[in-house]
Design brief:
single chain; alpha/beta; Rossmann fold; seven-stranded mixed beta sheet; about 30% strand
């Protein structure tokens, strides 16, 4: 079982990777597909919303299509937030820099949303992360997420000897980096969330994605 100390080392390497990748991030596969966009529309975020790991704003723009009151966007990489500010000028948006593995919200939100982030949470930090999400929600608050699923593993370069599930990633100039990467099966992920007290629905989408919703104590379907 990987230790938290090992996970923290990989988290630091992952942050370094995304800081270096910021200018290339908008060219990634994180773009919303019609199916994922429809899933977000079905979720229909409203009120005061929190977006975790907002990156350069690819999914922020999708969230802002909905009639929100406010959208707080958090990321660990200042380079990502700088591009985010250039890409997103909506007055409802507020940006904050936080390492999500050391973050605890001092505010409460109607919804928490994260896109292509959950697969970067190491197993040893999974319960803690979801505890932080719960702490950020108001009573009756909802969670929406999208990510790669288990079918996406064939597109990555896993590091077999890594203490934490991880993949090798290269920037456009060939510079190698390491990112934590778990390839969740939708049903197994829903079961894992259920074990933590969440009522979750997780579905496959397209050829390599999943999306899900979660609440505390009440079924999402």
């Amino acid at each position: 079982m990987p230790t938290q100390h090992a996970a923290d080392r990989f988290i630091a390497r992952q942050i370094a990777y995304y800081r270096a990748r910021a200018t290339e991030f908008d060219l990634s596969h994180h773009q919303p597909t019609p199916e994922l966009r429809a899933a977000l529309d079905e979720f229909a975020p409203r009120g005061e919303v929190l977006e975790l790991a907002c990156g350069t704003g690819i999914w922020t723009a999708e969230i802002l299509r909905h009639p929100l009151d406010t959208l707080t966007c958090i990321d660990a990489a200042p380079e990502m937030l700088e591009i985010h500010a250039a890409n997103i000028s909506d007055p409802r948006v507020r940006r904050e820099r936080h390492d999500l593995f050391g973050w605890e919200s001092d505010e409460r939100y109607d919804a928490v949303i994260f896109a292509f982030w959950l697969s970067h949470v190491p197993p040893v930090r999974f319960p803690e992360f979801w505890g932080a999400v719960e702490n950020a929600l108001r009573p009756g608050g909802r969670v929406f997420f999208v990510d790669d699923d288990h079918r996406a593993e064939v597109t990555e370069e896993p590091i077999p000897e890594a203490e934490v599930p991880a993949v090798l990633r290269r920037l456009d100039d060939g510079t190698p980096h390491v990112a934590i990467k778990l390839f969740h099966d939708p049903q197994s992920l829903a079961d894992d969330l259920g074990a933590l007290g969440w009522a979750a629905t997780v579905r496959s989408a397209g050829s390599r994605f999943l999306w899900g919703t979660a609440t505390r104590g009440t079924a999402t379907d």
